[in-house]
Amino acid sequence: MKTKILNSLSLYATLLVIYRIYYTNSLFYSFMLWNLFMAFLPFLISEIIPLCSKKLLWFFFPLWLLFLPNAPYLLTDIFHLQKGELMPMWYDLLMLLTFSITGMFLYFLSLLKMYVLISKIHSVSTANIILYGSIFLSSFGIYLGRYLRWNSWEILQNPTALFQDVFNRIIHPENHLKTWGITIGYSILFVILFWFVKNIKINFTFAENNTK
Question: Which DSSP state fits 55?
Fold first, then answer.
């Protein structure tokens, strides 16, 4: 079911961009396709991990965490919405919302997959700690990507400058209220939404089992 929904959302978002490019003869929003690809990476990693041995979980975990912010990052692409003559604003809003919803769907599916996996291998309390930490770090990653324009792979390409930006915001939080306001704000929102999604899944599974 989740695969069909993901495929449908992704196809719809892609077609909206393709039609916009065709209609306007402008590639302005073509970057959304790359952002969608990046959003899929943490989900794909979370799908692969259960197929590997338990020992490989903590090998793949840093890679999953590194790419995790790319999924909710799609939510912030709404910043690109602007009035213009090339395309009606309602169309661009529909397109950006479709990408945003797809990104959030990927984000929570990936989080839920890792949460269940860690709960089984270790404990629920360990899974909760890792869940909250992952949400906080991915929210911080959104800030790094949207406002400081850092990409996931730049931890390898330019680690010194990246760590300097991060370190400055940790040791001088009073000088970077925007950083922590965005990070904490998104973290709270994502935690609330995660438990909402988790409860829906539990209720759906319960109802499904009772109908068999």
Answer: G
